[in-house]
Specification:
Blueprint lengths: L15 H4 L4 H13 L2 E8 L4 E13 L2 E3 L3 H12 L5 E7 L6 H6 E13 L4
Antiparallel strand pairs: 1-2, 2-3, 2-5, 4-5
C-alpha cells in the first residue's frame, strides 16, 4: 500500500524460530537433564502389626561409565533408608546384567537395580 495516509508494514528483523534455534545440541542437553533425574519406587507391605516386606527399585542414567546422579543400587537402598522402616533385612539384590553385552550400558544406557527384604519385628 502506498499513498499519503498509508502506514509502512512492520516486519520483525528476527523471527522467534531464528532467535531460539532448536538444534541437536539443545535436544541432547534437554535429554541429558531429564535423564539426570533419578527414579525410584518402593513397595512396603505389612504382614503383621509390626513387620512386613519391602521391594525397592532404582534407576540411573549411565554415560561413559558414570552413573548419574548416582548408582542405581545406591538409589534403591537410599529409598528404603528414607522410608524409615525399622530393622530392615535385605534378602535379595538384583542389578541389570546383560552378560557380555554389559559394556554397551557402560557407554550409554539406563541401569536398574532392585532390593527386597523384610522389615520390623516378628513376635515369637
Amino acid at each position: 500500500m502506498s499513498g499519503p495516509g498509508a502506514r509502512p508494514l512492520h516486519r520483525p528483523s528476527h523471527s522467534t524460530a531464528q532467535r531460539f534455534p532448536v538444534n541437536s545440541r539443545t535436544l541432547l542437553a534437554a535429554a541429558l537433564l531429564a535423564a539426570l533425574a533419578s527414579c525410584a519406587n518402593l513397595k512396603a507391605r505389612r504382614t503383621t502389626e509390626t513387620s512386613g516386606t519391602f521391594k525397592s527399585t532404582g534407576y540411573a542414567f549411565t554415560l561413559l561409565s558414570w552413573d548419574l546422579p548416582r548408582s542405581a543400587i545406591l538409589i534403591a537402598s537410599e529409598n528404603v533408608s528414607d522410608q524409615g522402616l525399622p530393622n530392615t533385612v535385605i534378602e535379595d539384590v538384583s542389578v541389570t546384567d546383560l552378560g557380555w553385552f554389559d559394556w554397551v550400558l557402560e557407554i550409554i544406557g539406563v541401569r536398574r537395580a532392585s532390593i527386597s527384604g523384610t522389615w520390623g519385628y516378628v513376635e515369637e
